[in-house]
Amino acid sequence: EDQVTQSPEALRLQEGESSSLNCSYTVSGLRGLFWYRQDPGKGPEFLFTLYSAGEEKEKERLKATLTKKESFLHITAPKPEDSATYLCAVLAASGGSYIPTFGRGTSLIVHP
Amino acid sequence: DAGITQSPRYKITETGRQVTLMCHQTWSHSYMFWYRQDLGHGLRLIYYSAAADITDKGEVPDGYVVSRSKTENFPLTLESATRSQTSVYFCASSEGQALRVYFGPGTRLTVT
What we know:
The complex is a heterodimer of chains A (about 110) and B (about 110). By secondary structure, chain A is mainly beta. Chain A is about 0% helix and about 60% strand. Chain B is an all-beta fold and about 110 residues long. In chain B, the strands form 2 sheets. In chain B, strands 2, 4, 5, 6, 9, 10 and 11 form a 7-stranded mixed sheet that branches. A 4-stranded antiparallel sheet of chain B has the order 1-3-8-7, with no helix packed on it. In chain B, a hairpin with a 6-residue loop joins strand 9 (about 85-95) and strand 10 (about 100-105). At the A-B interface, strand 5, strand 9 and strand 10 of A face strand 4, strand 5 and strand 10 of B.
């Protein structure tokens, strides 16, 4: 049973067309949620950490928000260079530690 | 500042052979992780380590062995490679629980 579900799996946007990516989770007692960006052939690159419901973080055209059941990554007026796969991860309990558990990602393509 | 490095970056091996993937980080982070990334599955945790000489299983540990005798190194060994272990392997590290996770560039492994 997936603890982290991302939607949509793929998204195509025109340059300037704002949209949102969703990350829903089922873990109880969330300790934190990460957003990463991954370009083809590279390792994931950190974007944000959110720790509590109501928290928001911004970076350039990206804004991440968190509720008790899901997180959104809002992309405002995207550019072609925003094309990438966006990964969400929640900190899930494993033994005595909290370990990042990833969703399958949303592949974003922004057309010029 | 080298950060986190993986070697080799590409490896082709035959079924049944033993393969070791290397991971080195220069930050003295306490946590280190091994993930594999496959189409349709996203990033799945193989093993993690909370400190030197402390390792624990993740979601998909079968067929893999890890060790961590030094804080900076976390090698992953496939004892007898199988075709199902063809994947991209990512090593990662974190200064502590609930903190940002840094990823290496990945090793693309093909088992023929």
